[in-house]
């Protein structure tokens, strides 16, 4: 077969599968109540006519900008969405080209971007569920197999971002500072406020043995917390830094599983808060927000080693010419962020894992500057002590040693 005939065959094949006309269209919520905090996620189902005349069903995801009080605080004028669109159309597109250049066959770490309507503040994306991807249930933290795949994926993502930076295709100056480390409104409302509710829960239902811990933690002022949080992420200029995902937690990851239920592929979603810093930020945020605490306690050393191997081997694979971080560098970065991770975990993990859909009201939280909006009952539920107690004692020890 010569190239002219092959060209005709390929063009016909592409036209046969192309959508020619939409017959019907319907939309419905893609997530249950309580599963997403900053966007409205819709599933769009289309009945279409294809180029070859066949009737087919196609599904897409529509992500609509959230317009409540909470959305106005960290970012104004829908810049969250503009940032995400920029990541899809610039960063992720270039990462795809990089994978093609070096023959990386592991698959992309993102879904396909279809369209952005600025007028309607809507992003249209590939429906990953149609390809067999699903999230891990929010109320069941990830196990070791999922953690290993996620950290390997973070290593690949960070490596590709660093290579793009080295080539001048993305700039470290193009991203705003991380909101959890630099935005005092977010630190107060998303880190300090839930901890005050946790302390109330400890005093109400945890028993006398926790009174001393509650008393010590209640003496931590917002100013003290804010300074310590900011200092933890203030890495010096010699630190290996790259573009971070910024919100890599359980609900922003989708996995494909084999017939035994073991995860074999992963995709990141929600690229609204990318930032430039040590990659240990993403790793810390993930480890303390998404996996079973016992998995983290028992496997932290090996998980960090796995991440480092993925990062450095991916840097090598994609032709990075700069110096690579040693395992000691990564361990030092993780140690620096232990306070941030532990505070973040103990203050918010109960809200993430509860079956309740009213654990927190972001609009009310930002409207009242954190005085209201966190449900005290969440911190009094059965199992909360077993879930966060060990880390809470470790947090008090960090203050005693400082």
Automatic annotation (TrEMBL):
Organism of derivation: Nezara viridula
Protein name as catalogued: CHK kinase-like domain-containing protein
Gene3D superfamilies from the UniProt entry: 3.90.1200.10
Lineage per the UniProt record: Eukaryota, Metazoa, Ecdysozoa, Arthropoda, Hexapoda
PANTHER family hit by this protein: CHK KINASE-LIKE DOMAIN-CONTAINING PROTEIN-RELATED, PROTEIN KINASE-LIKE DOMAIN-CONTAINING
Residues of the CHK kinase-like domain: 123-317
Top-level taxon in the UniProt lineage: Eukaryota
């Amino acid at each position: 077969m010569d190239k002219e005939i092959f060209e005709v065959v390929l063009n016909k094949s592409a036209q046969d599968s192309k959508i020619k006309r939409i017959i019907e269209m319907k939309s419905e919520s893609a997530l249950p109540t309580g599963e997403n905090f900053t966007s409205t996620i819709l599933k769009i189902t289309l009945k279409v006519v294809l180029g070859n005349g066949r009737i087919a069903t196609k599904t897409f995801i529509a992500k609509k900008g959230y317009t409540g009080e909470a959305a106005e605080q960290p970012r104004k004028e829908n810049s969250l969405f503009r940032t995400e669109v920029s990541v899809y159309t610039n960063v992720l597109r270039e990462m795809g080209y990089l994978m093609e250049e070096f023959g990386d066959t592991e698959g992309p770490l993102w879904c396909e971007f279809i369209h952005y309507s600025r007028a309607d503040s809507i992003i249209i994306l590939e429906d990953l569920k149609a390809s067999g991807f699903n999230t891990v249930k929010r109320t069941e933290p990830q196990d070791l197999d999922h953690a290993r795949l996620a950290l390997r994926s973070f290593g690949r993502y960070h490596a590709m971002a660093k290579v793009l930076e080295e080539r001048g295709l993305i700039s470290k100056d193009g991203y705003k500072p991380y909101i959890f480390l630099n935005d005092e409104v977010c630190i107060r409302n998303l880190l300090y406020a839930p901890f005050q509710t946790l302390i109330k829960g400890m005093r109400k239902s945890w028993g006398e043995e926790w009174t001393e811990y509650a008393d010590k933690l209640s003496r931590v002022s917002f100013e003290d917390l804010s300074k310590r949080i900011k200092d933890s992420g203030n890495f010096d200029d010699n630190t290996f830094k790259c573009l971070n995902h910024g919100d890599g937690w359980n609900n922003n990851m989708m996995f494909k599983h084999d017939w035994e239920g073991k995860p074999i592929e992963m995709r990141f979603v929600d690229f609204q808060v990318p930032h430039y810093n040590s990659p240990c930020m993403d790793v810390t945020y993930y480890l303390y927000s998404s996996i079973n605490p016992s998995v983290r306690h028992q496997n932290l050393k090996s998980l960090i080693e796995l991440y480092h191997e993925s990062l450095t081997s991916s840097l090598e694979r994609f032709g990075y010419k700069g110096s690579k971080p040693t395992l000691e560098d990564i361990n030092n970065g993780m140690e620096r962020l232990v306070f941030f991770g532990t505070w973040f975990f103990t203050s918010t993990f109960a809200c993430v894992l509860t079956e309740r859909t009213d654990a927190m009201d972001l609009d009310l939280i930002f409207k009242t500057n954190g005085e209201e909006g966190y449900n005290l009952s969440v911190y009094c539920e059965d199992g909360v002590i077993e879930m966060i107690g060990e880390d809470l004692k470790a947090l008090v020890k960090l203050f005693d040693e400082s």
